[in-house]
């Protein structure tokens, strides 16, 4: 159909235009070759929507181009379904495009069959393990998969209901948490909201409707507050942009669940974001705000001094106006704002010869405790169900985190409800298994003591210890500690 052909051409031209806008090299031959191979391979295939199949890999590639990924990643995105869904082989991809692009394509390719006795469920679980292993070697594999999943979620309406629930659950359990851990909020937010829409449609539309009804009144109140803040910032001689933003739907739903509050009780649906030039300006603005408005006790968080594991940095404070309006303020620099949106991708830059994205991926792996932990689990756990269950538990998207410190000031972020033993295992597996006593803020505590944010924890080890106590399994919170203790007893 001419209309279909025009849509494909428009998407392809859009893709090239986006890449040309940020990549210093004008050579798009690799992209053109990948598109031609994919377009020919998928020629007679259509999606559930009735659209030509090639629209899917093109849409995935455009998402990655908008995130300013390298050409190898975008080429792999165009080719990501050809091995799985067409007659083209891995060997052909490697011959034509090289080992790097073949690795990326293979990383996101699901296993088709293991043996005649292997169930579909087992193949799916093994495919997950394969994906995690490839992700640990090259972070670009999972970024392609996230873009792939996003487009599948955007077109989920064409699937039957049972498939919608299966895919949305998978997205909420695995893919949205990975986007969050990588700090790529532009992907995470849409993945979460789309998952909510299919898993809890009543809540999704209730929150959406409530926000539309209440937005005019709230925006009017926040407009007055924003104007007053802008005046104070100008008087302080600070260059800043001030705007109010609505929280995304799933973040509001998560607040309702975690705080056990109704929608009417959630006050921080809107946040005022203040973007300044320097870290010093962040703290000056914070002091000015606390002088003008009363801060709510216990609602201040300094993510600049103690960044989140995904590199997020900002000052968060909740204030109350003279009219009684509660509102949240986030203060960050321009660089912090960029990292908040794009995470690990915020600092990926290219020179005329391209960039060694594999090195960037390797550095991310070295920095990410959660990624190293998954790789350890890959080696330690042979049962696929146990492995995926552990990953899902660790990725629980409703988990709230606390920050605790070693006596030398090193910070460890743990799920709320974590104990001393969880902290010890977060330091080191050997320290965890040999823990015999601990001091929290200078006081000796039992090993099942539940930590609070800001606690300073000193672990005392017994070098002669034969290993962890089996009783610790009754109170540890983290998946990491549970796995290490279980694994010890499996192998000893």
Backbone structural class: alpha+beta
Overall mean pLDDT stands at 88
Task: Give the CA-CA distance, first to last residue.
Answer: 65 Å
CATH topology of the largest domain: Hypothetical protein af1432
- Domains, number: 3
Number of helices: 21
- Approximate helicity band: 55-70%
CATH top level of the largest domain is Mainly Alpha
| CATH architecture title of the largest domain | Orthogonal Bundle
CATH superfamily of the largest domain: Hypothetical protein af1432
Radius of gyration: 25 Å
Query: pLDDT below 50 for ≥5 consecutive residues: which ranges?
Result: 351-355
Shape: globular
- Strand fraction equals 5-15%
Biggest sheet overview: 6 strands, mixed
Let me know the number of strands. 11
Give a description of the structure.
This protein is α+β, with helices and mostly antiparallel strands and 492 residues long. It has three domains: 2-199, Hypothetical protein af1432; 214-334, Beta Polymerase, domain 2; 400-491, Beta-grasp domain (Ubiquitin-like (UB roll), Roll), CATH 3.10.20.30. 56% of the residues lie in helices and 11% in strands. The chain has 21 helices and eleven strands. The strands form three sheets. Strands 1, 2, 3, 4, 5 and 6 form a six-stranded mixed beta sheet that branches. Strands 10-9-11 form a three-stranded antiparallel beta sheet. The chain has a two-stranded antiparallel sheet with strand order 7-8. Helix 8 crosses helix 17 (369-380) and helix 9 (140-154) packs antiparallel against helix 10. The longest helix is centred in the middle third of the chain and has 35 residues, at 201-235. It is globular and about 70 Å long. 34% of the residues are buried. The model is unreliable at 351-355 (pLDDT under 50).
């Amino acid at each position: 159909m001419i209309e279909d052909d025009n849509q494909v051409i428009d998407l392809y031209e859009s893709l090239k235009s986006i890449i040309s806008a940020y990549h210093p090299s004008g050579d798009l031959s690799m992209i053109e070759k990948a598109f031609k191979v994919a377009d020919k391979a998928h020629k007679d295939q259509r999606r559930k929507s009735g659209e030509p199949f090639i629209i899917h890999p093109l849409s995935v590639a455009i998402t990655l181009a908008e995130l300013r990924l390298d050409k190898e990643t975008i080429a792999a995105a165009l080719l990501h379904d050809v091995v799985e869904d067409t007659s083209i082989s891995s060997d052909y991809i490697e011959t034509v495009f090289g080992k790097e692009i073949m690795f990326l394509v293979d990383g996101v390719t699901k296993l088709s069959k293991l043996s005649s006795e292997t169930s579909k469920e087992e193949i799916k679980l093994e495919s997950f393990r394969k994906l995690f292993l490839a992700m640990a070697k090259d972070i670009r594999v999972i970024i392609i998969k996230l873009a792939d999943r996003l487009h599948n979620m955007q077109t989920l309406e064409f699937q039957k209901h049972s498939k919608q629930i299966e895919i949305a659950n998978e997205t909420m359990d695995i893919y949205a948490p990975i986007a969050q851990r990588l700090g790529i909020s532009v992907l995470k937010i849409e993945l979460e909201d789309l998952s909510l829409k299919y898993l809890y449609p009543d809540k999704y539309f209730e929150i959406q409707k409530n926000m539309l009804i209440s937005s005019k009144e709230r925006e009017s109140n926040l407009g007055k507050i924003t104007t007053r803040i802008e005046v104070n910032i100008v008087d302080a001689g600070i260059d800043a942009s001030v705007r109010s933003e609505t929280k995304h739907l799933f973040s509001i739903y998560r607040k309702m669940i975690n705080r056990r509050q109704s929608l009417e009780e959630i006050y921080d649906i809107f946040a005022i974001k203040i973007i300044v030039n320097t870290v010093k300006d962040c703290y000056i603005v914070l002091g000015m705000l606390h002088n003008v408005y009363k801060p709510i006790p216990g609602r201040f968080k300094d993510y600049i001094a103690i960044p989140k594991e995904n590199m997020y940095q900002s000052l968060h404070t909740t204030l109350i106006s003279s009219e009684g309006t509660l509102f949240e303020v986030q203060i960050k620099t321009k660089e912090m704002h960029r990292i908040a949106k794009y995470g690990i991708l915020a600092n990926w830059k290219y020179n005329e010869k391209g960039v060694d994205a594999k090195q960037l991926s390797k550095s991310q792996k070295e920095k990410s405790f959660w990624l190293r932990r998954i790789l350890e689990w890959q080696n330690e756990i042979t049962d696929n169900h146990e492995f995926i269950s552990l990953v899902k538990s660790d990725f629980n998207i409703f988990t709230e985190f606390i920050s605790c410190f070693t006596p030398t000031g090193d910070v460890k972020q743990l799920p709320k409800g974590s104990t001393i033993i969880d902290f010890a295992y977060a330091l080191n597996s050997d320290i965890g298994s040999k823990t015999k006593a601990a001091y929290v803020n200078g006081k000796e505590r039992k090993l099942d003591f539940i930590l609070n944010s800001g606690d300073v924890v000193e672990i005392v080890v017994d070098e002669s210890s034969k290993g962890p106590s089996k009783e610790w399994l009754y109170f540890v919170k983290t998946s990491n500690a549970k796995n290490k203790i279980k694994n010890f007893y499996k192998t000893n």
